[in-house]
Amino acid sequence: MVNSLSGRFLILTIIFVMIAEIFIFVPSVARFREDYLRARLERAQIASLAVAVDAMISPALEAELLENAEVYNVVLRRDEIRQLALSSKLPAPIAATYDMRAPSG
In whole angstroms, what separates CA 50 from the centre of its chain? Predict the structure, then answer.
């Protein structure tokens, strides 16, 4: 079938469709990631605005703001000066790793 004209045309069609899919899929994934990061930055900025209004907030509110923003710390940068606005405990280090390729025994 590959030696016939219709077989060659089918293979070329498949190749061009796959190349077109790559040219569509890669920018789509990059755009999704950019939108995801931009949304997290916006949520962190909103959390920092709550601190800017009231410098003393409760630890429960601080934890809720960080959880909603899905970040560990919020740092304000103004005129080349960085100020830690919100902070939380960093997650514990990874205690164990598992290699699923290795047979269990």
Answer: 24
